[in-house]
Design goal:
Number of strands: 2
Structural class: mainly alpha
Strand order of the largest sheet: 1-2
Strand content: under 5%
CATH architecture: Orthogonal Bundle
Helix content: over 70%
Shape: globular
Number of helices: 15
Number of domains: 1
Distance between the termini: 19 Å
Largest sheet: 2 strands, antiparallel
Radius of gyration: 21 Å
Order of helices and strands: HHHHHEEHHHHHHHHHH
CATH class: Mainly Alpha
């Protein structure tokens, strides 16, 4: 990792590209288009599946439930069985996919901005390894499956992700580098240690390997309204904090000394962004498992349209990330129907070639 978060230089060789004239001219149009893309993706997500639902009837049913409390009846809705599929199975799954995709994408964009490194992703500081260890431990050893309406695996994954990130931050602080390469290396060390612990547990509990690997590869098939309601406050607060930090990150990009002279405290800003992005990642991982490439690839897609300004990049990444994961989940549902692919497999098939293409085109321009 050659780019450091603590240097005072104006630009970094590997950092995000500066805003392009096109992005500066049309940020509002791009943001509106991203919102429309997310809405269309949500509609496709509830229409498509093993039981196809008529688009018009889906819209009528949703409007009927929204306007019903106002005394407005919307005819032409779904039948009883189809309505149950929509409201109890498909809609919570689609909304959860949108929330998870949005959180991972905006967290990835924030990490790339604060570390000035285009290869930074939401799992950078040990969140994935910690979540994996937490989920593996309860799958292998927990005698209960839930605590009230909340599953025990998401709770353990959330706690593990926070433990991983907290350990990386603590290790980075005690070694004298709370940001930059030292913190990145601390995250690598913590992730390696936690991954080793997870492997040890797996080897001692081979009967649970299928369930463990199913979680590690990402899953949204068991999504329930309780998952959406439990994760929504954490994702909402963390994503809002990141969006509000966009302009401050743009100021920080010109250098620490210049940022300080403009009233931005570099150390506090980096800590706030890292904590908020890590909370968003931990919350997303807790309910979806490990879904790779969303936080790495989506910010690059958004950057093509709005440039490198974090004030524009973060909201567009959030919307595009939600749309991307909803559509990816549709592919996971239908490509081998009636079975399902783990969504993490689909994002890897899409993300790895895409990212390789970005690297190839970048190398050709140099």
């Amino acid at each position: 990792m050659t780019a450091t978060a603590g240097s005072g230089t104006r630009s970094q060789p590997g950092g995000p590209a500066p805003a392009t004239p096109r992005g500066r001219r049309r940020p509002g149009l791009v943001l509106a288009g991203s919102g429309v893309a997310l809405l269309l993706a949500l509609l496709v997500g509830v229409w498509v599946g093993a039981l196809p639902l008529a688009p018009g009837a889906v819209v009528a049913t949703l409007l009927d439930h929204l306007l019903g409390p106002l005394g407005i009846d919307v005819p032409g809705g779904l039948s009883g069985t189809e309505e149950a599929v929509l409201l109890k199975l498909r809609l919570p799954r689609v909304l959860l996919a949108a929330l998870v995709g949005a959180a991972l994408a905006v967290a990835g964009a924030a990490y790339q901005g604060v570390f000035r490194n285009p290869l930074a992703d939401p799992y950078l500081l040990g969140a994935a390894a910690g979540a994996g260890l937490g989920a593996t431990l309860v799958i292998a050893y927990s005698p209960v499956q839930s605590l009230g309406p909340v599953g025990i695996v998401p709770l353990a994954a959330f706690a593990g992700a926070l433990l991983g990130v907290g350990s990386a931050l603590l290790l980075g602080a005690v070694t004298g580098g709370s940001h930059g390469p030292t913190l990145l290396l601390a995250g690598i060390a913590v992730a390696a240690f936690l991954s080793a612990g997870q492997t040890l547990v797996q080897q001692k509990n081979t009967d649970d390997l299928r369930e463990i690997y199913g979680w590690l590869l990402g899953q949204l098939g068991k999504a329930q309204w309780s998952d959406v309601l439990v994760v929504l406050p954490y994702l909402g607060v963390s994503c809002l904090v990141l969006l509000l930090c966009g302009r401050a990150l743009d100021v920080l990009a010109v250098g620490d000394d210049e940022a300080s002279s403009l009233g931005v405290h570099p150390g506090r800003l980096r800590l706030l962004v890292i904590v908020a992005a890590s909370l968003a990642t931990a919350s997303a991982v807790a309910v979806s498992g490990l879904i790779g490439f969303v936080g790495l690839v989506v910010p690059h897609i958004a950057r093509r349209f709005v440039g490198g300004s974090n004030a524009r990049l973060l909201p567009v990444s959030l919307l595009v990330g939600g749309a991307f994961l909803v559509l990816t989940d549709v592919v996971a549902r239908v490509v081998v129907a009636p079975a399902e692919l783990p969504i993490g497999v689909v994002t890897a098939f899409i993300g790895a070639p895409f990212f390789a293409g970005l690297l190839w085109f970048g190398a050709r321009r140099r």
